[in-house]
Structure formats: structure tokens, C-alpha cells
Amino acid sequence: MVLLRRVIGDALRARRQGQHRTLREVSSAANVSLGYLSEIERGQKEPSSELLAAICDALGARLSELLREVSDTVALAEQMPGVLVPMADEPVAPAAVRKATNRGVRQVTSDGSVAVQVRQDSPLKATLRSTRVRPADRDVVCAA
Questions:
Q1: Is 91 exposed, middle or buried (0-12, 13-18, 19+ CB in 10 A)?
Q2: Residue 63 CB contacts under 8 Å (≥ 6 apart), including other chains
Q3: CA 64 → CA 31, 40, 135, 140, distances in Å?
Q4: Are the C-beta atoms of 142 and 125 separated by less than 8 Å?
Q5: What is the pLDDT of residues 96-107, one digit of tens each?
């Protein structure tokens, strides 16, 4: 199961970093503490709708755009069978070896405009990376 708070946090972080802004700048503009915004971006806290709207406003983004991006990422993750199931045909290796050899990586493309890469980090953790082919959109990275 994909944690919605992680996908939201990753989408917010991607937008902030895409604007080359610091946590301090955005937290000040959104009137939220720097630590709390950091926890939201890391998927440790789930923001209220009011707070999410304030953060989006500080980023100059529409709430609907952010939620659409999050929805697209979750929808793509749901289409991928066995995302959080261990890959039976591959031996369990230390994390450093898996990262170096890219074991457990699968890629799916949806309608030619979105590609999703899933890396199975462990039996209970998968990292999703969705990339839009259109150059104006940003990448979203999320862990579940």
C-alpha cells in the first residue's frame, strides 16, 4: 500500500526544489514551522487541508494541481501488481548490492506520457519514481 502522506510530501518537495527554494523560505511564506514542513515533506506528518492549501499557496501552485499529481502517482502505483510483494525469482542481497545492480527494478509506461519505475528495496518497502514525458512537468519520487 502506498502511503498518501509520503506521496504528498514527495510532490511538495519536488515543487519546492524545482523552484530552488529552501524549507525556510517556504515555511515562512506558508506560516508553518520549518520542522513541521520538513516532517510533511518526509512523509512523517499528514497535513490538514488548510495547511496543505497554505503550502501550495506559498509555492505558487494550485491545490488541485498538487492533488492531481498525487492522484496520478497513486493510480499508477495501484496498476502495478505485486509492488510490495517480494520478487521470488531474485535472491535477497544486501542493500548496497541491490542498488549497484538495480535488482528489483521494473518499469511501466502509461499512455506514452508517464513512466513509472518501481524499485523493490525490501519485502515491505518499494520506491516509486514517476516521470512525465512532457518537459514542463516535474518528477515525483515517493517511497512506500
A1: exposed
A2: 52, 53, 56
A3: 20, 18, 20, 16
A4: no
A5: 333 434 455 555
Residue 13 has phi, psi (to 5 degrees) of -60, -45
Q: The cell 509555492 sits on which residue?
A: 59
H/E stretch holding 143 reads strand 140-143
Closest listed residue to residue 12, CA positions, set 33, 1, 39, 35:
39
Instruction: Report whether 106 contacts 122 (CB < 8 A).
Output: no
- Cell numbers found for residue 83: 509492488
Q: Taking Cα atoms as reference points, which of 44, 48, 43, 45 lies closest to residue 30? A: 48
Write the pLDDT tens digit of every residue in 57-98.
999 999 999 999 999 888 888 787 765 444 344 443 444 333
